[in-house]
Write a structure and sequence with these properties.
8 helices; 7 strands; alpha/beta; seven-stranded parallel β-sheet; Rossmann fold; single chain
Length: 247
């Protein structure tokens, strides 16, 4: 039987990159996939892709920085499906600059999406998961959130913060039957790397012991494992999926 059979799984940033790969993998694993992203046409396309894989799926246009909308989407999902079994906090952005050059707008925007958005979504589903006595919250950190990285003050801070959320919530919610874990990808071949010059990409590949960037599907498979009962004793973990890269 598929590992996520009938598990209602809400995935943010699910219309491209790692989020889309995760939505598709969850669909293949039998989940009921709730596709959330900010672009309406992309949400529709991703939802159709999940349905084409045989899954029951629903799409919602969602900006994770809009708490009222987050609460509304969670309510609609609960009204329709009766429960939320898995939340994947995947939505994230970068706006890179060195400390001396970073604008307040760049700093605030990344913190708002990558950190506050994770808080909004997790708090919005927590009561339902506690009532169920079960649930899984999976947070997207990064190797940058473990080691830091040049030019990424805002992004590193947000991803360090997500690890703090994960460690704290695993203690608070673990006794209620809810597991909370984080995944820390290395550099993955997604649109978020589109602004990085080819020369820099080649240097990154050289620094990875496996000699290449990761693929979105390789991160998605880890999310699928952590969401499943195969990971029933994994709680409060930060799992690096980086090919061995140390930034």
């Amino acid at each position: 039987m598929p590992r996520l059979q009938n598990k209602v799984s809400l995935i943010t940033g699910a219309a491209q990159g790692i989020g889309l790969a995760t939505a598709r993998r969850f669909a293949q694993e039998g989940a009921i996939v709730i596709v959330c992203d900010i672009k309406p046409e992309a949400v529709e396309d991703a939802t159709r892709q999940c349905q084409a894989l045989g899954a029951q799926a629903a799409g919602f246009v969602l900006d994770v920085t809009d708490r009222a909308r987050v609460d509304e989407v969670v309510k609609q999902v609960l009204d329709r499906f009766g429960r939320i079994d898995v939340l994947v906090n995947n939505a994230g952005i970068t706006q890179d600059a060195r400390l001396q050059k970073m604008t307040l707008e760049q700093f605030d925007r990344v913190i708002d999406v990558n950190l506050r958005g994770v808080f909004h979504c997790s708090q919005a589903v927590a009561d339902a998961m506690v009532r169920q006595g079960s649930g899984v919250i999976l947070n997207a950190s990064s190797v940058v959130g473990v080691y830091g990285n040049f030019g990424q003050t805002n992004y590193a801070a947000s991803k360090f913060g997500v690890i703090g959320f994960t460690k704290t919530w695993s203690r608070e919610l673990g006794p209620k039957g809810i597991r909370v874990n984080a995944v820390a990808p290395g550099f993955v071949a997604t649109p978020i790397l589109g602004t990085i010059p080819d020369k820099v990409i080649a240097e990154l590949e050289h620094r990875v012991p496996l000699g290449r960037l990761g693929q979105p599907e390789e991160i998605a498979s880890v999310y699928a494992f952590l969401a499943s009962d195969d990971a029933s004793y994994v709680n409060g973990a930060v799992l690096e999926v980086s090919g061995g890269l140390v930034v």
